[in-house]
Amino acid sequence: MAKKKEKKEEFTLEDLPGVGPATAEKLREAGYTGLMEIAVAAPSDLADVAGIGEGQAQKIIHAARKYANVGQFETGAEIYKRRKELTKLTTGSKEFDSLLGGGFETQAITELFGEFGSGKTQIVHQLAVNAQLPKEKGGLEGHVIFIDTENTFRPERIVQMAEALELDPEEVLKRIHVARAFNSHHQMLLVDKAMELAKEYPVRLLVVDSLTAHFRAEYVGRGSLAARQQLLNRHMHDLLRFADLNNAVVAVTNQVSAKPDTFYGDPTTPIGGHIVGHTATYRIYMKKSRGNKRIARLIDSPALPDGEIVLVIKTEGIRDP
Ligand code: ADP
Ligand code: MG
Fold it and tell me: Do 100 and 52 share a domain, yes or no?
């Protein structure tokens, strides 16, 4: 019985010593939703949010480390094997692909950030179609999960893009699994659901459009910033895990704040600031240009040179100008 519980990782915060329902509630509100979050927490932070002493916080953290799967080691050979499976998904634009070293990378999160209308949603629609292309054509021959937070998924748009690539639109739509996320909590749960769905279908692309809209709307003001960042951090790590385990592309969108964000005052700064930025492997800044032209700029990539390209949004989809 106990063994089974351990395997399924069903321990909850209330299983920790000295954590009753009230403390658990405070911890969860502050973003410490699971044992892993607590296991890696700083005692002083935990003490602060739960209103307990640092000594007690230490004890809680120690217990969480015992229960949570902290410090699982992998051999270099295992990592190497996984890295060898890494591939790229075409964007539909040769220029854009080469900016990214061949396209959107699997086992990574790519963040598209930019103002309203800069083409983020159009690009993720294009990716949802392209992911189904054969590998020779830059596809991944896979299914797609699309987490839609702003109700901007349009099957009609998928049909247009699929037809332009001479794919059967019906078939393409059947392989895109769309879920509306009604709030940030639901959005995070949907990543767990995605993990389950990926056991049933060969999912090779996960889209979250938009990553930050709910978080931004729900956590307003300086006082809730820490909680928001905690949750976003956890969400990003769940997404990265999805990318790794499924050798999948994860593409997320992020709107820049038109009026200064509570904390990150620069109007061109993406929501979520350094939390999202540090976990995303690639960050692309999208900017409106003349007519249907858009500028895509690669920012702070670890392995690729920074640079920018121009693409166009046509009825057929994302193309070179
Ligand atoms: P964001 O998600 O960054 O707010 P979108 O990806 O929704 O922006 O971009 C919207 C723009 O995409 C529109 O302003 C329009 O220029 C272009 N667009 C949308 N649908 C089509 C279409 N069917 N054909 C051509 N261009 C389109
Ligand atoms: Mg959009």
Answer: no
Q: What CATH number is associated with residue 261? A: 3.40.50.300
pTM score, whole prediction: 0.81
Looking at the fold, whether 45 and 133 belong to one and the same domain comes out as no
pLDDT of 208-253, one tens digit each?
A: 999 999 998 999 888 888 888 889 988 999 999 899 989 999 999 9
- Beta carbon of 314 within 6 Å of any ligand 1 atom: yes
Structural domain contains residue 104? yes
37-76 pLDDT tens trace: 888 888 998 999 999 999 999 999 988 888 876 667 888 9
CATH code for position 7: 1.10.150.20
List the beta bridge partners of residue 108. 249
Q: Who surrounds ion ligand 2 at CB < 5 A?
A: 120-121, 152
Q: Is the CB of 315 under 6 A from ligand 1?
A: yes
Contact partners, residue 53, CB within 8 Å, separation at least 6: 47
Q: Nearest C-alpha to atom 14 of ligand 1 is from which residue?
A: 117
Q: What is the domain count for the chain?
A: 2
- CA distances for 48 relative to 19, 148, 232, 275, angstroms: 14, 35, 20, 21
6, 87: one domain: no
Nearest atom in ligand 1 to 124's CA:
6
Q: Does residue 149's CB lie within 6 angstroms of at least one atom of ligand 1?
A: no
Neighbours of 81 (CB within 10 A): 11
Q: Determine the structural domain holding residue 45 and report its residue range.
A: 2-68
